[in-house]
Design a protein that fits this description.
With 135 residues, the protein is mainly α. Helices cover 61% and strands 0% of the residues. The longest helix is centred in the C-terminal third of the chain and has 37 residues.
Length: 135
């Protein structure tokens, strides 16, 4: 990108970050990003720090952090609060592990239901539907 500092329009910023313009505006409404001043008769301009911030937000979201959690991480982004960032990561890891446990349980139940459906020759009612109905 050969744009000088603070020369990107919101469209160029969005494209460079791999998001759409509404995502940038949403982040601004959520106070995750600044909204630059608009010069008289001009267009708001964004710079590399803004691009880095969008990329930070998207990276954190890919790791499963909610936008509220991302806001907390952004308060620590200067890198001097490693203990606090680690604590947040540990909480997220515990949450992910709990979800994995739930997903494994769901997988087992669904696998059993699928097998019961395959073995339900001649039955009028589907075993899976019956199980979901609580019968």
């Amino acid at each position: 990108m050969n744009e000088p500092a603070d020369a990107m329009t919101i469209g160029v910023l969005a494209e460079a970050a791999g998001v759409n313009v509404e995502t940038i505006r949403f982040y601004q409404r959520k106070k995750l990003m600044r909204e630059p001043d608009r010069p008289p008769g001009g267009i708001r301009r964004y710079g590399e720090p803004d691009l880095a911030r969008v990329r930070f937000i998207k990276s954190a979201q890919r790791l499963g952090f909610s936008l509220d959690e991302v806001a907390d991480l952004l308060k620590l982004e200067d890198g001097s609060h490693c203990t606090e960032a680690r604590a947040q990561a540990e909480r997220k890891l515990a949450d992910v592990r709990a979800r994995l446990t739930d997903l494994r349980r769901i997988e087992g139940v669904l696998q059993d239901l699928v097998q019961r459906c395959c073995a339900a020759d001649g039955e009028v009612r589907c075993p899976m539907i019956r199980a979901l109905q609580g019968a």
